[in-house]
Amino acid sequence: MKIFSESHKTVFVVDHCPYMAESCRQHVEFDMLVKNRTQGIIPLAPISKSLWTCSVESSMEYCRIMYDIFPFKKLVNFIVSDSGAHVLNSWTQEDQNLQELMAALAAVGPPNPRADPECCSILHGLVAAVETLCKITEYQHEARTLLMENAERVGNRGRIICITNAKSDSHVRMLEDCVQETIHEHNKLAANSDHLMQIQKCELVLIHTYPVGEDSLVSDRTKKEVSRGHGRREQHANTSANYDVELLHHKDAHVDFLKSGDNHLSGSSREGSFKETITLKWCTPRTNNIELHYCTGAYRISPVDVNSRPSSCLTNFLLNDPRYKIDGSLEIPLERAKDQLEKHTRYWPMIISQTTIFNMQAVVPLASVIVKESLTEEDVLNCQKTIYNLVDMERKNDPLTLFLHLYFRDEQYRIMWNELETLVRAHINNSEKHQRVLECLMACRSKPPEEEERKKRGRKREDKEDKSEKAVKDYEQEKSWQDSERLKGILERGKEELAEAEIIKDSPDSPEPPNKKPLVEMDETPPVEKSKGPVSLLSLWSNRINTANSRKHQEFAGRLNSVNNRAELYQHLKEENGMETTENGKASRQ
């Protein structure tokens, strides 16, 4: 069975009858005595609180302590009883705070001392308290929902704290009988309802209030005392003052002390108290094992007298000094590191040659901030600028990386845009600003139809240019091959002519061949002047063809009749003038 303890539901029933407006007769000094008071000034008279004020203060202190130590699953409901029952809050977690309760009590106001006491009764509040205990809380509803068919296994227990002025012991027994009968009746109603729960156990606490000095007509009961801890506050650099601060904490803290086996813990039973008190020393850690204890547990605490100076000093010191302040929302570094690693590796190419955007310096501003948990307006603006810069690069047809040199430019940018979209989509669930970056990216990727048509025409033009360049290269290669074949045929014919000339020269009847300079063999071709740059194969073949062709034109007549490569010029003029030429080239008169 899912058992909820009695402390899960606590109903305060405060008597609002005219009797509660009387003074408690416990005086409080309003005008404190000071040394430098001027002579002749009469001090203000002391004041005293009403029984209603004391009841409200005590109930508020109970709520403060419980909210400090048990912030969840310990709920309080307030009911004010006079001529009727006035429920001030509900079981919801939103109503469980001191501000809501104090505002509701202030709206009720103090009791009217001139009201008719016969019309007021605490029974109205007790009946309403039992009815409130039958209502289901959020935690009980959650437990019943989890058990589904076994919802009846969820227990319902509670506590009623009634602050009133009892007339006698018989009056107290009458109140107890009234509560018991009311529980029996409401359990019958809850058995046939899905919105109510039967009460398995109810703890009734009656607090009898009466002014100081009067005799109580109700017999006294057992008194209980809470644990107390000692504290030490550093006042100055070299001095300190010891003081005692009474603290309340969970009872499991004592169990942990006993389990730790620490023999230095001081336990004492004070005035027959059923609980032991533990002395906690708040001091500078020393090497003394008696004063230095290791941590056995962490529990929430609350001072008994929150407004006293020692409690205020200790509370402020714990809350303001960062060396002793424990952050309740402390994150585990290992989990945070795993979280960050998962976010940064949602898109993570294993090889650098498999990615485009991580090889581009222009994408770094976007890739470095998109992995963040949340983006600022400046980060979003930088991401948008990066996207616009990439669009401008695509418009200018700028090259991207060396890894995509085998693709056309538009294909390179298509790969880049796809990869960038994959990176941004991996982080769009981080925040709304990540979604804005993706929307900007998708808007820039969607080009108008005329832009796509222009890209297609540009691609076709590039294909035609490549084909024309290839055709020119093929033509040049074919032409050079034809020239080389023609040169080879010319050289072969030249060799055949030389061979025939040698045969004719060797025969005895052959006439004297003219003084003709033989053709130069290809091996005797003068070397081509070295150029500064590399010489192509076509140039070499062109030079050889030109050399061979120059040897085939008609020889100069003067060179054919020359002696020692010297030819006499203007011989016809000399013949007309009666000059004769000799073999050595010198002329003589006849």
How would you summarize what this structure contains?
Helix content is about 40%, strand content about 10%. The chain has about 600 residues and is α/β, with parallel strands linked by helices. The N and C termini lie far apart (about 160 Å).
How would you portray this structure in words?
With 590 residues, this protein is α/β, with parallel strands linked by helices. Helix content is 42%, strand content 12%. It has helices at 51-69, 98-108, 123-133, 138-147, 169-191, 252-260, 309-320, 333-344, 364-369, 377-396, 409-425, 432-445, 449-506, 537-550, 557-560, 571-576, and strands at 9-15, 23-28, 47-50, 75-81, 85-87, 157-164, 201-208, 229-234, 240-245, 247-249, 267-268, 277-278, 301-303, 579-581, 587-589. The strands form six sheets. A five-stranded mixed sheet has the order 5-4-1-6-7, sandwiched between helices. Helix 1 runs antiparallel to helix 2, helix 3 runs parallel beside helix 5 (169-191) and helix 11 runs antiparallel to helix 12 (432-445). The model is unreliable at 222-237, 264-274, 504-508, 516-528 and 581-590 (pLDDT under 50). Keywords: Cell cycle, Cell division, Cytoplasm, Mitosis, Nucleus. Residues 448-479, 499-534 are annotated as: Disordered.
